[in-house]
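Action item from last meeting closed. Structure (195 res):
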């Protein structure tokens, strides 16, 4: 893995641990000589991880739709900035640029981004590792939801490992480095298995 796409809140959240974890992740990316790909904002957790990597001399690539420049306030010190026309194009470009994905705490946008790349992984658009940085148990309810959906028959048990969840950035990146995508299975329980 040479480039990690980080999805993160454009707000810092209420706990200092959120910002500290964003910075810790930035330090880990620097230590491993990994580039950061992210949404291009200077605000919130997005800005914290980007500034950490930039201040350490790392390479940071932002991807932002033109219409969001005003709201998210584009970071003006990035190594590269890709201007795109829509959120769909933003996510496609981030997927193209990255070798793996990590979600820091965030809101609806972060949830939507991480679940889209999980869905893409499930249907075979990519086979890249996907991690959740579980700061202060932030993603524990998400993992419980995934387990609930598996037990309810909506996620094949072989595909629950598509999401890697850890509270320590170094451990998360180590697990992502060692990730092997699950064997492709028939995800439709009403269709017969191919022979």
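Sequence:
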């Amino acid at each position: 893995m040479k480039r990690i796409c980080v999805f993160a809140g454009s707000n810092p959240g209420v706990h200092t641990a959120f910002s500290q974890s964003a910075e810790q992740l930035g330090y880990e990316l620097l230590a491993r000589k990994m580039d950061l790909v992210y949404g291009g904002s200077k605000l919130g957790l997005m800005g914290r991880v980007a500034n950490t990597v930039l201040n350490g001399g790392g390479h940071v690539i932002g991807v932002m739709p033109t219409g969001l420049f005003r709201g998210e306030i584009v970071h003006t010190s990035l190594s590269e900035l890709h201007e795109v026309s829509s959120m769909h194009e933003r996510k496609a470009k981030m997927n193209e640029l990255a070798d793996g994905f990590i979600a820091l705490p965030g809101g609806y946008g972060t949830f939507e981004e991480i679940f889209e790349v999980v869905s893409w992984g499930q249907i075979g658009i990519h086979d890249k590792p996907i991690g959740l940085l579980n700061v202060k148990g932030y993603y524990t309810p998400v993992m419980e939801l995934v387990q609930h959906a598996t037990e309810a028959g909506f996620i094949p048990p072989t595909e629950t490992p598509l999401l890697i969840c850890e509270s320590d950035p170094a451990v998360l990146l180590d697990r992502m480095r060692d990730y092997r995508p699950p064997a492709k299975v028939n995800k439709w329980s009403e269709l017969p298995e191919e022979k």
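Note appended to the action item: The helical segments are 16-31, 44-55, 69-73, 87-97, 108-123, 140-151, 169-177.
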